[in-house]
Specification:
This protein has helices spanning about 10-15, 20-30, 40-60, 70-75, 80-110, 115-140, 150-165, 170-180, 185-200, 210-235. By secondary structure, the protein is mainly alpha-helical. Helix 6 (about 115-140) packs across helix 7, helix 6 runs parallel beside helix 10 (about 210-235) and helix 7 crosses helix 8 (about 170-180). The chain is globular, with a radius of gyration of 20 Å.
C-alpha cells in the first residue's frame, strides 16, 4: 500500500475533466466541506441534505438489525470466556466492514464509476449496521443489556455508536435520553457530525479494494476498543443475578 493512499498517478488525473475522476470528483462536486476552499453555500447545502438522508436511513435501519442475545452467542461459541467471545465478535465485524469497503473501493476504480454519492451512502449505512450490531452484542457479552423494548434498545445502541462509548446503565438520565427522550433531530445531527468527520477518510478508496478494506477494518477495530474499554469497567459476570435472559 502506498505511503500516501490518496496520491494518484499523474496520467490518471492530468487533463481529465472533473466528472472523470471518480470519488474525488464526486466529493468535490458535492462541495466537500473538509477540503480547503469548499464550494459555495448551495454546494454545502447539498452536502448537508445528503448527510441528513444518510442519518435518517441509519435511524430507520437500527431497529431492524438482528442482534443475538447472550444465550444465542454462548451456544454458537461454546466454551469461550467473555473476552474470547468479544474477540470473535470484533473479528467478524471487522471482516464485514472490510467487505463493504472493498466493494466500494473496487467500484471507485471502474473506468466509468457509478454515482459515487450513492455508493458512499450505501457504504456508510452498511458499515453503521455492522458496527451497531457489534455494539449491541458486546453489551450482551459484558452483561450490560439496556432495559426497554427491542426498539428502545436499538436507539440506545445507535446512540452508543454515534458517541463511540458504551451505555452506562447506572446513569438513568442519559439512558432515558438514549431510549427516546432525545429528539430525533438531535440524534440526526449527531450522526451527521460523525459521518462528516469520517468523510476525508473515504477518499483513499480511490486506490481500490485493498485500501477500502484496510480502512474500514482499522476503524471498526478502533471503535470496538473504545466500546470494550467502557464496558469492562461496568461488566456484570455471566453467573451474577439477575438473569440476563428474558
Amino acid at each position: 500500500m502506498p505511503a500516501d493512499p490518496t496520491a494518484l498517478p499523474a496520467e490518471r488525473t492530468a487533463g481529465v475533466p472533473l466528472e472523470g475522476r471518480g470519488r474525488t470528483a464526486s466529493l468535490e462536486a458535492m462541495g466537500d466541506t473538509g477540503a480547503a476552499g469548499a464550494g459555495d453555500a448551495r454546494q454545502r447545502s447539498r452536502v448537508r441534505a445528503w448527510l441528513a438522508v444518510i442519518a435518517d436511513r441509519i435511524i430507520a435501519t437500527a431497529p431492524r438489525i438482528p442482534v443475538r442475545d447472550l444465550g444465542t452467542l454462548r451456544a454458537q461459541f461454546p466454551g469461550l470466556t467473555p473476552e474470547e467471545l468479544a474477540d470473535k465478535l470484533v473479528a467478524g465485524a471487522c471482516a464485514g466492514t472490510a467487505t463493504v469497503g472493498a466493494g466500494v473501493g473496487a467500484a471507485a476504480m471502474l473506468p466509468v464509476p457509478p454515482a459515487m454519492p450513492a455508493e458512499l451512502a450505501a457504504e456508510v449505512t452498511g458499515v453503521a449496521s455492522v458496527e451497531i450490531k457489534l455494539i449491541a452484542e458486546l453489551h450482551e457479552v459484558y452483561g450490560l443489556r439496556p432495559p426497554g423494548t427491542f426498539r428502545q434498545r436499538a436507539m440506545a445502541y445507535l446512540t452508543s455508536w454515534t458517541e463511540e462509548r458504551g451505555i452506562d446503565l447506572a446513569a438513568p438520565a442519559s439512558l432515558n435520553i438514549a431510549l427516546g427522550g432525545q429528539m430525533k433531530r438531535e440524534l440526526r445531527q449527531q450522526i451527521m457530525k460523525r459521518t462528516l468527520r469520517n468523510l476525508p477518510n473515504l477518499t483513499p478508496f480511490l486506490v481500490g479494494a485493498a485500501v477500502g478494506a484496510f480502512m474500514n477494518r482499522r476503524d471498526t477495530r478502533r471503535l470496538a476498543q473504545k466500546i470494550r474499554k467502557d464496558l469492562r469497567r461496568r461488566q456484570i459476570p455471566w453467573d451474577a443475578p439477575p438473569a440476563l435472559d428474558g
